[in-house]
Amino acid sequence: MKTIAKIKAPIEEEMEIFERKFRESVRSQVPLLNRxxxxxxxxxxxxxRPMFVFLTSKMLAGHVSERSYRGAGIIELIHTATIVHxxxxxxxxxxxxxxxxNAVWRNKIAVLVGDYLLAKGLIWSIDNDDFDLLRIIxxxxxxxxEGELLQIEKARRLDIDESTYYDIIRKKTASLxxxxxxxGAASVGMDVKTVNDMHRFxxxxxxxxxxxxxxxxxxAGDIGxxxxxxxxxxxxxxxxxxxxxxxDKKKKKWMLRIIRKHNTDKKKVKExxxxxxxxxxxxxxxxxMTEYKNQALRILERYPDNEAKExxxxxxxxxxxxxI
Length: 324
Fold this sequence. Notes:
The protein has 324 residues and is mainly alpha-helical. It has 15 helices and 2 strands.
C-alpha cells in the first residue's frame, strides 16, 4: 500500500473530493436503491481508474477540472455496472473478499442496479454536454463486450493464436484503462493528438496489466493463492498460447486434451502448468509485458516532467510488479 500512497500523493485532495462527489452521484429517491449503492460505494477498491484520470489531467494541464471529476465519476459508475452484471453472469458470490451484490440481493435486483448505474453515467454526461467524454467511455464498453464474447467463443473452440489473444485483452481489459487516460486528457481541453497519445498510453498499460494477471495463474501459488483457475475456465492465456503454438503435434494434443477434458483435475492441471514453465511460457509473457511497459513509458517521455508524470510511471511499475 506504500506504493499506492506514493502514486496518489499528487492527487490526494482531488481523490477526497471525488469520493464525496461520487457518493452524491449515486443517490436516488428509492430507499432500497440507496442501501444497495452505499453497499457498493463503501466496498471501494483502490480507485485506480479515477487515479488514472486525475494524474493524466494534472500531468498535462497542471490541474484537475470539474469535467475531470465528471469523467472519473462516469467511468466509475459504468465500471461498477459492468462488475455487477459480470457477477450475475459468472454466478460469483464474492467480490474483493465480500459477498457480491447478487449474493445478497439476488440476480434480478443486481441486474436492475447495474442498469441504474449505467443510466446514471449516461445521464450525467448528457446533462453536462460531455459528449466527447461519453463517446470515449461508450467505445470502451462496446469493446469490453466484444472482448468478453470473443474470449467465450475461443474458450469453446480453443483455436486462439497470439494476435487474437492480444485483440481480446486489448478490448476486454485495456480499453477501460485507455478510456481513463484519454478522458483525463479530454477533460482538460487537450488536442486530439494528445488525447490519442494518452489513449494509447492507457491501452499499453492495460495490456501489461492483463498479461501480469495471466502470470498469476502460474505463479500465484507462491503467495498463497490458487493456480490453474484460467485453465479450469478454459481461458487461453499468453504463456499457454506461446508453448502450445511451438509444441510438436504429440505435445499439442496432450495439452489440448488436458484443457478440454481434464481442466478440473488438479494433478493434470499442475502437470500442464509445470510444462508451460519448463518450456519458457512465463519468460515469454514477462518479455511481452515488459515491451508494453516500455512502449507506454516512451509515450510519457513526450510530456512535461512533474509529480503527476512520476506517479503515472510509478503506476506502470505497480501494474507489472504487484502481487495481487
